[in-house]
């Protein structure tokens, strides 16, 4: 059998639930592990290393439950780690029983430093243990993986010998770990080529790689390994794991996806083939990343490749301009490929007019060139003070700088009666655009609601209040209350874009008065925008 050369695709072995969980503070309970395992199956990983069954009763149960619930015939292989010790292997075999496809992953160190100080054993003793324990694991399951721990710092001649014996004893996957993240990519590639060339029975097993990110090189090492014959990659979601973490699944998968034509020849495929190199459903990547981050409490740094908050966000004007003209000017992947809805154009001090105009249009403002320039000056001034400008900031800029709304309706009087034993009632008087003073009253769920209902009876423009906020701008009992209102047009004249928001703003020591003024302010903007096409006015009493 020539297992290795038959494999024209890359097997993704996820160890988030084993090595990933080994990072300080990332401990998961059984249910959390099960939740992640289900998501890993949706993501399409080939193998889930569900835990280290011997390590604790909780890990045993987690491996067992995952084997039962996720390890179905058409699901992933479920794997448990085990030291090269009979009791570890027995526990792994027992926990994996419910899995349709179970794998025991047994390991023992091969570097002199580990042999001398950790295991206190000779090379000959470790060779014999490896051989014996692989055979023992094989007595339980067909699928056995063997790892010579700290392979990267092991004497190559000894490493070849151990691997040959492990394969002869039944290992179907030989996994080559850079346990301490020491190697450079070309050295790692050379190590894999050395194994291919010097382990006589290597074709009877899949060559796998496992690596850590102590020098930030794990993914780069793995890609060199693929070029030299590795066909299984052991990795974790968000790259979590022991110390600086493991090689990150999303980075590996997307590197192989985006650059598949570069990697094709190394897998014996035609260069131009567009067929995926892994069976990962890339659209599940972002969701899986969020889930792992939430459940482990391990935050993802914003500039993390693929899944960081900034991975598909652009702030600088030149990039945003390019993106708006053609996404490929500044992106090598489509955000949708990893399950995000879209690329983000973040408006900040580095942004330019094109992105500013585009976002305003999305918010329903189609400004003339002159107005746009005016608003843009204000935008840059504000952006110097704030890291990121929200849609609300943009609305405020346009409202203040561009739309000098005439005071069509003017608040003359607002009076409320409320308390714990009375129904909140408000009376308002407004001067209308025709100069007439109208008064009306209404009851509501509270004083502000009553005021707004009374104002609506006078103004008579259908609208939907979508935000009301009140904040104090000075300290103490006599603080000034600042009220901000956001509303949408609720009618059907068809002249106001459906997404257009009208904001109103007012400050007063009496928050009921501030609320009434802010509302009238927003209604004036809405009313003004309706005027040229359809005179709604003539308030009906
Ligand atoms: C590179 C890796 O990621 S390896 C996996 C690391 N993961 C973990 O260690 C998490 C789970 N571990 C545990 O829960 C515990 O360490 C246990 C249950 C496995 C063992 O606990 P203890 O019996 O108390 O041993 P302890 O952890 O103190 O020491 C490890 C022992 O295993 C031995 N050992 C380490 N690796 C191996 C191996 N691959 N095969 C055989 N023996 C090993 C060590 O030499 C040491 O033996 P000693 O006690 O005779 O000196
Ligand atoms: C158990 C082995 C594969 C490991 O995690 C390592 O060497 O880093
Ligand atoms: Mg590891």
From TrEMBL:
Q: Which organism is it from?
A: Myxacorys almedinensis A
GO term, biological process aspect, one:
L-leucine biosynthetic process
Is the Signal keyword given for this protein?
A: no
Recorded hits in SMART domains, A to Z, give: LeuA_dimer (SM00917)
Please identify the protein, giving its name as recorded: 2-isopropylmalate synthase
* EC assignment: 2.3.3.13
Q: What is catalysed by this protein?
A: 3-methyl-2-oxobutanoate + acetyl-CoA + H2O = (2S)-2-isopropylmalate + CoA + H(+); acetyl-CoA + 2-oxoglutarate + H2O = (2R)-homocitrate + CoA + H(+)
Q: Where is the Pyruvate carboxyltransferase domain?
A: 10-271
């Amino acid at each position: 059998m020539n297992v290795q050369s038959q494999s024209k695709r890359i097997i993704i072995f996820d160890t988030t639930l084993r090595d990933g969980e080994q990072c300080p503070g990332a401990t998961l309970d059984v249910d959390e592990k099960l939740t992640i395992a289900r998501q890993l199956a949706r993501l399409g990983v080939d193998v889930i290393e569900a835990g280290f069954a011997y390590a604790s009763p909780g890990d045993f149960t987690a491996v067992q439950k995952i084997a039962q619930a996720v390890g179905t015939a058409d699901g992933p292989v479920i794997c448990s780690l085990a030291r090269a010790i009979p009791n570890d292997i027995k526990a792994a075999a027992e926990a994996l029983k419910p899995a349709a496809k179970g794998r025991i992953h047994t390991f023992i160190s091969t570097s002199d430093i580990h042999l001398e100080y950790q295991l206190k054993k000779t090379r000959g003793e470790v060779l014999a243990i490896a051989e014996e324990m692989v055979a023992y694991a094989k007595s339980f399951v067909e699928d056995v993986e063997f790892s010579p721990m700290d392979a990267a710092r092991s004497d190559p001649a000894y490493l070849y010998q151990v691997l040959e014996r492990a394969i002869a004893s039944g290992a179907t996957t030989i996994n080559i770990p850079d346990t301490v993240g020491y190697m450079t990519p070309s050295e790692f590639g050379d190590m894999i080529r050395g194994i291919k060339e010097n382990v006589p029975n290597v074709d009877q097993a899949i060559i796998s790689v496992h690596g850590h990110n102590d020098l930030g090189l794990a993914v780069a090492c793995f890609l060199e390994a693929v070029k030299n014959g590795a066909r299984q990659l052991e990795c974790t979601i968000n790259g979590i794991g022991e110390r600086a973490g493991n090689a990150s699944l999303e980075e590996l998968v997307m590197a192989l996806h985006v650059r598949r034509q570069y990697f094709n020849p190394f897998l014996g495929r035609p260069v131009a083939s567009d067929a995926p190199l892994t069976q990962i459903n890339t659209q599940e990547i972002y969701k899986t990343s969020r889930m792992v981050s939430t459940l482990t409490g391990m935050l993802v740094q914003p500039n993390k490749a693929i899944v960081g908050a900034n991975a598909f966000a652009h702030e600088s004007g030149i990039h945003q301009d390019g993106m708006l003209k053609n996404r490929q000017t500044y992106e090598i992947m489509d955000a949708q490929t990893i399950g995000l809805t879209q690329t983000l154009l973040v408006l900040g001090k580095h942004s330019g007019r094109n992105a500013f105009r585009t976002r305003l249009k999305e918010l329903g403002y189609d400004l003339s060139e002159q107005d746009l320039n005016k608003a843009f000056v204000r935008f840059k001034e504000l952006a110097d003070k704030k890291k990121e400008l929200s849609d609300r900031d943009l609305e405020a800029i346009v409202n203040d700088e561009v739309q000098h709304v005439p005071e069509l309706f003017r608040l003359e009087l607002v009076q409320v009666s409320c308390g714990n034993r009375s129904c909140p009632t408000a009376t308002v008087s407004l001067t209308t655009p025709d100069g007439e003073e109208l008064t009306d009253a209404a009851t509501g769920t509270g004083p502000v609601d009553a005021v707004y209902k009374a104002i609506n009876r006078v103004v008579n423009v259908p609208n939907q209040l979508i935000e009301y906020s009140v904040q104090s701008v000075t300290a103490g009992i006599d603080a000034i209350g600042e009220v901000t209102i956001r509303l949408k047009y609720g009618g059907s004249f068809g002249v106001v874009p459906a997404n257009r928001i009208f904001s109103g703003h007012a400050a007063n020591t009496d928050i009921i008065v501030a609320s009434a003024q802010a509302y009238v302010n927003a209604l004036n903007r809405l009313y003004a925008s309706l005027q040229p096409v359809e005179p709604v006015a003539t308030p009906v009493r």
